[in-house]
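User: Hi! I'm a student and our assignment asks us to look at how structure tokens line up with a sequence. Could you show me two examples?

Assistant: Happy to help. In each example below, the sequence comes first and the structure tokens follow. Example one:
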Amino acid sequence: MLAATATLAIVVAIVIVPLIFLAASLASEASSVYERIRSGEVTFGRYFRQMLDALPSWARSALERVGLDDGGSVQSRLSGERRAGEPPGSLRGVPELSEARYRRRAALRSRG
């Protein structure tokens, strides 16, 4: 009986207590991030622009081909808005991008 109680106390001390502190810390961080988003301190448009600027030119041109080269177009795609005449769920330019990938792979295979 004493061994079971000691084992239970060790498990609580090693696993449960740190887990409680971790959950409290995570909740605090989530609350902090939420408040920064509400106050406007965190702007996803700025982060998106920084991410696009950091991409290599080939990746930027691929995003331009599919119409995802600015925050507004990404937001409209995510919100479900679409251009006139564009079918639902359409990603304009994706077939061309897939075709370019196919041609590039075929060229690499022919070299080897």
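Example two works the same way, sequence first and then tokens:
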Amino acid sequence: MKFRFTPEAADDLEEIRDFIAEDSPRYAAELIAQIFEIVAQIADYPRSGRMIAKYGNPNLRERFYRRYRIAYRIIDSKIEVLTVHHSSKIPTF
């Protein structure tokens, strides 16, 4: 499956990168690369993430990487990443 980031999810990644880069540009780049790897794995195994029970939609799922939540939707033959945020934040999707 192919994947894409919504504009909101792309903004999330940029905010995460910028925040971490204040202390460590190298770690920020590594973290973003690792998140992309997780999303590529999701594209290969879209149902590997757990369903977000709150919404009751089997196509709305999430995976965690370290303390980051990656929420995504399965649409036909693609994955749409809705948000990527630190687990201490409340999602806005």
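Here is something you could point out in your write-up. Residues 16 and 22 are 10 Å apart (CA to CA).
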